[in-house]
User: Fold this.
Amino acid sequence: MQDLIDKIKASKDLAQLEALRVSVLGKKGYLTTQFAKLKELNERKKKELAKSLNEEKEAFNKAYEQRHQELSKLALNEDMKKDALNFSYFDEGCVSGALHPINSTMDRIIDYFVSLNFSVEKGPLIEDDFHNFEALNLPKTHPARDMQDTFYFDDGSLLRTQTSPVQIRTMLAQKPPVRMIAPGAVFRRDFDLTHTPMFHQIEGLVVEEGAKVSFANLKSILVEFLHYFFGDVKIRFRPSFFPFTEPSAEVDISCVFCKGGGCRVCKQTGWLEVLGSGVVDPNVYKFVNYQNVSGYAFGLGIERFAMLYHQIPDLRSLFEGDLRLLEQFR
Ligand code: DAH
Assistant:
């Protein structure tokens, strides 16, 4: 038996091992024939031989199982080697990609407001008049509709001109308090050096029950945000008008190009407008059935933030798909 066990240990592959097993346990195998002889023996001898045969069988099986495991593993490894793909092919000439500056800017802004517990809401790009205008306190005849050159469809629906309709959708779906931002694409019939028909905005809205929220809250959050985004800039709030906020303010930062000294980009004023904002006009709450609440809202253009932050001189370069632009942001 010992020399059989040695043979098992020395077997080189599963086929050899199987041949050994058959030679011992197969129909005409060594142990099978030995067991067959038992019935010719008397009780005492039968017992003796059976005992030693069973021991041999057990020793054999043990050695067989162990070698079977070892050889199976080897066979698997061989198979894997045969099937392996050669990835070294990709080692050379591999270039890493880069986020488009609009995406990275959007991500930075979203991260900031998410860290302040704002939820991120979405709305459809094809809007209706109610959400894009009416409920934002812009009745049909309101002259402020001209501020936004709208793409209309024949059925009266439109491409949203701003992310503000997501305010309305969120308030209609949710009870106060609301604390949300809404990033996304918007569309206007505008195309020149500083305008593209599609661009991106982020809308912000905070509404609380009672009179908790004031212009002071709006001001402090926007000042903090602009310092986070642009670093050490001066900030000023300038009275303005938006139909859905009262009072309203536009927010300027000192020019990032000339540091406020006056240049072509800031039209010699030293200031750059970056945000629209205000205290939510009570009329808006009527359209969403909110009572006894207070809130503020703000909206900003991502392209403008990206261009000022990265000092990109031409808006159109953001939309040309030229890889040389992206390569600079790796
Ligand atoms: N929706 C405005 C626009 O597209 C931006 C804006 C201004 C949003 C003031 C606001 C806001 O929420 O309070 O020009």
In short: The chain has a mean pLDDT of 92. The beta strands are 119-120, 126-127, 158-159, 178-187, 198-209, 235-242, 245-254, 271-280, 293-301.
